[in-house]
Design a protein that fits this description.
By secondary structure, this protein is mainly alpha-helical. 66% of the residues lie in helices and 0% in strands. The chain starts with 19 loop residues before the first helix and ends in a 5-residue tail after the last helix.
Length: 95
């Protein structure tokens, strides 16, 4: 999988407002949006935890989560046949 490159940094100081009240409003808008996203992420984490708790007495969650991680990795593999060969070769060595 190719490495992700960092986004290019641009000097945007000439684009931001020079007047302090306009800058303050822009910064407050940004902070509010980021805080809203953070709050939504926390709610989603709580929802995920509740779903896991709900199914923990019906399913082996630890094993299911490991299987989900493996399935996600397999989905991202570009050369599935080569991956399968590697898995077959590793099978006796993995304990």
């Amino acid at each position: 999988m190719p490495k992700k490159t960092a986004p290019k940094q641009y000097n945007v100081t000439h684009l931001q407002p020079d007047e302090i009240n306009a800058l303050r409003a822009l910064v407050n808008e940004f902070v509010e949006k980021v805080n809203n996203i953070d709050n939504e992420l926390e709610l989603l984490r709580q929802d995920r935890k509740e779903v896991i708790e709900e199914y923990s007495d019906k399913l082996d969650m630890k094993t299911l989560q490991a299987a989900l991680r493996v399935a996600k990795i397999q989905k991202e593999v570009a050369h599935r046949d080569t991956f399968d060969l590697f898995m077959e070769a590793l099978d006796p060595t993995v304990s």
